[in-house]
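Exercise: predict the fold of this chain.
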Amino acid sequence: MSTGAYFDSYQASLADPSGFWKEAAQDIDWVTPPTQILDDANPPFYRWFPDGELNVCFNAVDRHVHAGRGDQAAIHYDSPVTGTKLTITYAELLEQVKAVAGGLRGLGVEKGDRVVIYMPMVPEAVVAMLACARIGAVHSVVFGGFAPQELAARIEDAAPKVILSASCGVEPSRVVKYKPFLDEAIHRSEHKPDRCVILQREQERAELGERDLDWTDFISGEAARAGADPVTVKGTDPLYILYTSGTTGKPKGIYRDSAGYAVALRWSMGNLYDVQPGETMFTASDVGWVVGHSYIVYGPLLAGATTILYEGKPIGTPDAGAFWRVISEYDVVSCFTAPTAFRAIKKEDSQAEHLARYDLSGFRTLYLAGERLDPDTYEWASSKLGVPVIDNWWQTETGWPIACNPKGIEMLPIKPGSPTVAVPGYDVQVLDGEGSQVAAGVEGAICIKLPMPPGTLPTLWQDDERYVASYLSAYPGYYLTGDGGYIDEDGYIFVMGRTDDVLNVAGHRLSTGSIEAALAGHEAVAECAVIGVKDELKGQVPRALVVLKSGIDGEAQGERIRTELVARVRSEVGAVAALHQVDIVKGLPKTRSGKILRKTMREIADGGSPAVPATIEDVSVLEALGPVLRGV
């Protein structure tokens, strides 16, 4: 790529980052416009718009109402699992956000305090996020399906003053009680919130305790009725913390600054996703994940677009035409989801017969991310939909795409298997073990040269040391993505998979460490290892290899132990871990220093023939495992 609008934009972003992002910042309303765009005085801790002041909620809600667009739909809530539909205009959203912001104020929440949001896909979750942003509080959304141990770790780290939750989540086949999970998580955490506000859902009402407050009472109280005006925050003040799995099992708090995120997200909506003010974007994710933060909530609302909050599944609610119905019904121009969703639709309706029932004439683009888009799924979706199917690659840490086909700038030719090119602002390079750039087509570690663009993590929540150790220490001056791959001669990036022990299950990142910790807690387990193996539907699923303590008969008790281990992981990590296969083995292959050879086992399980590491302690252990891993 040596000519064209994309190339010009990309080159400008690297040659003059301050100039590039100063221009982008003009699409944001500032209380105090920034005079300094990039503070690079203290590398590797770079800060964007350090002397700017703003309020992100004002930018996402108030300013559209002030501009005379209060009657435009801000959110379409569509819940096939409860049979509920609701449209909320920008004017209505503003009133609801003011009330929750006032209610939080009434509970003593001040600028800089943390609020944990543990809710299903309901409008109140989005309102809660915006209300926190309105008063300068830092929200930390925890996916509603997470088990008590995972929630407890986040409460412990974020130390919230208040937790906003709901009585339950609704799945197609079951109702998940949230309140017992929440109570157990608070019990396990040393930090205790002052209050918990519980949204009572009719599918399963919760019993409230002394600490708890009913959501209806919360939003009808005096403080909520008084509302709250937007609080001015610094550009570098935190907007939210979103936890992602670390290889150690302890979650990492990704800290997102206010101004950089607002500028980057607003810029990305038109330039990457080709969505204009007033148009509708359908992001089929969950507000508990980064995709939900960026492209259900903040991105569309910052752009003055209409977003869809969908409480349902790609299939089974009621059928494999669910997404087509939503796209048709709300005149969606851009849909964003994970490849897993489309693999599920393809499996259920391989000929896309449901598609014929709906008018998708206004639909322009499908975006897929969260895991590698395999060429088969790409080809199927492209041929059935007849619109560009665009893979984009990014992480919780970056907050918005690292690589994408920048349709709003210039639609580039698609190469199946590649998320296309580096997004303006990201200097993506592939490095070898010595930290040198490799030639085109040669695989290595995919890294991003510092400073990264606005919107990416400036550090981890209250843990600069771990930020440097986790991301910046392998290659000084570079951010380590943890993914391996190559860049071809046209500048197209090919991401081949993780280089660490993090699993990608249906677009959800889970650490092997947290699953192993749950397994190791079983009284019969001496040691264990979890690897991610290829799965046709979910991309990857965990597989556990367990060594039992001496004296325990694996033949006689194996079935019971396997069942208990699967249940343990579901209880400790959550159903999202999707652990179903547990192999009881005699030993695990290790290096002489004691490191379990997970990568080697993973490659064997996926049908490969990896070279045996020279550092292996006992090759016979690996040889004995071979047939088990291959399923022979």
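Check your answer against the key: The two ends are 47 Å apart (CA to CA).
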